[in-house]
Automatic annotation (TrEMBL):
Residues 1-279 form the PI3K/PI4K catalytic domain. This is Phosphatidylinositol 3- and 4-kinase. PROSITE patterns: PI3_4_KINASE_3 (PS50290). SUPFAM superfamilies: Protein kinase-like (PK-like). It comes from Candidatus Brocadia sinica JPN1.
Length: 279
């Protein structure tokens, strides 16, 4: 059974656990018969990602909770994988494969971490020649999504393509503040390049996504508040300030700034607004 951290009272913990199971944030692979497990060990890592194939032919990628094997004060990356899937659902992005946190013992092997549905016959972004139109749109949506959740690991190896106009965003644990010393205003400049070289206001798929983030802000902040138990407040301020910034820029009907320091200034203002309101 999945354990919640002791920052919550016992009753509260049970409630969160129950709700988490209902939402599919916590689950189990116990009822499924394993056919085989394939893995590459990381050099120096505790336990690399493992592909678990079940007897029914389906498969998942399992990534262990490194805190149980390595350093206890590492962030909880498994819950981040699962919450990013939930956020994807809330805003209707539909790019993150189904992901949940498990803690099962099968035979005498413990599976404690995240499992994500395995995408069959996929090629990653390094292996394709060019995007189809639909893939390009999804890739652009993903840029907005990654910016809001503060994902620092979206290289082309973490984007899979299945040749049916569909993109899959995998490996989503380096987000929602994985380090308390992380600068919550920092992000890659590819975000600015994208926003300033396009007329975002005329890109329906981007406008829609920003509006959905804004409309569902409370639901998203609530998910982070309940389930992300480390760096929680920082993660909330980061996500909220980024949603507010994008939304307010959109409503202003002016182009997005081209300069990094203008973005930082704008984000910093949103952060200050949030902190002031909280006092
Ligand atoms: N959902 C998935 N479907 C198919 N392949 C996956 C999936 N998740 C991961 N993989 C494969 O496993 C590799 C390692 O998983 P990833 O989540 O990227 O972990 P790491 O943190 O080691 O980069 C990926 O580069 C990809 O080849
Ligand atoms: Mg990866």
């Amino acid at each position: 059974m999945v354990k919640l951290e002791d920052t919550n009272t016992k009753n509260n913990r049970n409630e969160i656990l129950e709700e988490g199971i209902k939402k599919g944030i916590f689950g189990s692979i116990k009822g499924r018969e394993i056919d085989r497990v394939d893995y590459d060990r990381w050099m120096g890592g505790p336990r690399g990602p493992e592909k678990i194939t079940f007897k029914d032919g389906s498969a998942v990628i399992f990534k262990c909770d490194i805190r149980h094997y390595w350093m206890a004060d590492n962030p909880d990356t498994a819950i981040r994988e699962a919450i990013v899937y939930q956020i994807d659902k809330v805003v209707g992005l539909g790019l993150v494969p189904k992901t949940m946190v498990i803690d099962d013992t099968v035979g005498n092997v413990r599976y404690d971490g995240s499992v994500q549905e395995w995408i069959k016959d996929a090629r990653d972004g390094y292996q394709i020649e060019k995007f189809t139109n639909e893939e390009r749109k999804d890739f652009e949506r993903l840029k907005v999504f990654d910016f809001v959740i503060g994902n620092s690991d979206r290289h082309l190896g973490n984007v899979l393509f299945t040749g049916d106009d569909k993109l899959h965003a995998i490996d989503n644990n380096a987000c929602l503040i994985i380090d308390k010393n992380e600068d919550i205003l920092s992000f890659s400049d590819s975000v600015i390049i994208f926003f300033s070289r396009n007329v975002i206001h005329d890109m329906r798929h981007i406008v829609e996504l920003i509006e959905r983030f804004y409309a569902n802000k409370d639901t998203i902040l609530n998910l982070i508040d309940k389930y992300i138990h480390d760096n929680t407040e920082l993660a909330k301020v980061m996500v909220e300030s980024r949603i507010n910034y994008l939304y307010n820029m959109l409503k202003r009907d002016k182009p997005f700034p081209r300069k990094y320091r203008e973005w930082r200034k704008g984000l910093e203002e949103e952060v200050q607004n949030i902190l002031r309101r909280k006092k």
